[in-house]
Write a structure and sequence with these properties.
- The chain is α+β, with helices and mostly antiparallel strands and 161 residues long.
- It has 2 domains: 2-24 and 86-160, Dockerin domain (Type 1 dockerin domain, Orthogonal Bundle), CATH 1.10.1330; 40-82, no CATH class.
- It contains 6 helices and 4 strands, in the order H-E-E-E-H-E-H-H-H-H.
- The chain has a two-stranded antiparallel sheet with strand order 1-4. Strands 2-3 form a two-stranded antiparallel ribbon.
- Helix 3 packs antiparallel against helix 5 (133-145) and helix 5 (133-145) crosses helix 6.
- The radius of gyration is 20 Å and the shape is elongated.
- The two termini are 14 Å apart.
Amino acid sequence: MQMNIKIYQFTQLLFILFLTGVTWGQCPNTTNDDYGDCEMLIGWTWNGNDCAHLSGCGTTTSNGDDNAEWFFSNYDECFTFCDINNLPGDVNYDGNLDVIDIVLIVGYIIGNNLFTEDQISVGDYSDDGLLNVVDIVSLVNIILNGVAQRHTWEIILEDIF
């Protein structure tokens, strides 16, 4: 009976993870917008593949849209926020940390999926060089709470056992 309860709870958790996926790297391409004829450096922004510096009169387009939130003070800040490959745990590189990533990582751990070195690195949230259940627990906590708020072993002891 205890095993059935744990499987049911895990199934519920997977469903919740699917519904509450964390999104990252969703910066729009703002380089095609018209920011005026000024030659002032506005900042760094996403061009769809990489970050580029953009000049103009300000962050408001000729259509009246203010894109200030999509401009960054330097390349590293822009790239870290906008590049989908930087999301910890996003092993399928779709820009979301969700149940699909967790299922893929579980498949890797039990030997059903092959991962590249980059996928292992992206999934290794604990940064210990291993992709294992410790990383899964941390990533699930991020999905459910937005950030890793508790130590992995606290999560395991309190929520799993």
